[in-house]
Design brief:
disordered N terminus; Chromate transporter; disordered C terminus
Length: 486
Amino acid sequence: MAAPGFPETATQLNDRDVESSCPSHSPSDGPKNNSEIVESASARPNEDTELTYVNAPKMSLLRLFWYFFYNFGLFAWGGPVAQIALIKEQIVVKEEWISMARFQRVFAVYQILPGPEAAELCMFFGCLSAGRIGGIVAGLGFILPGFILMLVASYLYTLAGLENKYFNASFRALQPVVAAMIFKATHKIADHSIINQGTKKVDPFLVMAAICTAINSALHLNIFISLGLYGIIYMFVARRLWIPAGILFVLQYVGYAVYAVFRGVPSPVSLALGIAKTPSLINLFVLGLVAGSLSFGGAYTAIPFVHVEAVLKGAWLPQRVFIDCIAIGNVLPAPLVIFATFVGFQGGNKEGGLGMAFAGAVVITLGMFFPCFLFTIAGHSLLEKLVHNKFLSSFFDGLCGAVIGVIAVISFEILKSSVQGTERDFLTKPVELAIAKAAQSGIAAVVFTVALAVLYKFANKWTPIVLVISGAVAGQFLFLEDLSDR
């Protein structure tokens, strides 16, 4: 997904030659971005010079690691937009490692890669400074602070205990705050995902893909079926092949009807692949690997998949704990996909105790970030050839539109759980305490409304952090009274 302030998207580069993620000194033949005026042929060498300009300092691997650890890893607050803006200001504007034109082109390509764009940009600049090994070192420097902090947070969360009334009071208030953040993020992602890159207007077919994918999720169709199907349908739509597009669209519901008649309506867990029925180390690694491969545009596309596998299918992670991990991920200086570290820790702890918890946190994080490192550093040249294929780029457009429907459904599920509470709350004894917990729903709804209004009113990188801290403090006043000893 495109971030505000960066006008181009990856699909706008279909007819361009884009630099690889490592240094290249061959001139590009592609035009400059759409906001610039096309100049005469005599000015073309200047354009080529700007797009291939490299002034990256050559650093030792140790110095390179510290550079990205200290300048970006420790200050990766405020989510991906703030992280990307920080990298751009420091490296491109102040230190001028590359030209702004080249930065915008490279950033546009990275938007269709799985994984957090900020981490990928750090790898790109590390690659410019010290080759492919430098790219790996720079990426680790950016990711490591957030990983360590999430590991510590996961451990403290476990130590505090899920039954601690003060701990629960704060997180009861944080859950509707996180629901508001996810709602705002869904809107923000949709703003870019349903835009036709040719006309720059809302594409009704992409809107339809999002709505139908949301309907399919409600019908308990597998996520991958919907994403792949609407990617293919939009490929046909983009080429004006209306008949095959219509046939595919109708066939999905005919196939669903036939399945429902003979096998019954699918259960909610049919949305999952079932790759993490238990939180063993190998299952956690595969869960991270598949979720990381799906994280086009960042963590919000990975959240639904992890939720279905760990909370619904595997049932080894409670819904409220899952929401808590998203809350912690929002406040730490790290890519939001670092929430996977928390999931792995809790799964490992349930499977085999504290030692297994730390191992689970490590393996799921390795799986989550592996596709990001692989595509950015090793496979970028091949990816460029695929991206520049107009037919396949429309597949990515359709897939991105369909992803909005998946995220919207999970947003409503998290909202319902965060406001209404969990089933466990209503089974609390004595009955008076269960009734008191049910009464908290009104307060939680107010917290959600206020948090959502604040997010729309104040579009600042510190807003989510202030909301999380405020929610944790407010929980001690709003929910502690009813959370007396059970």
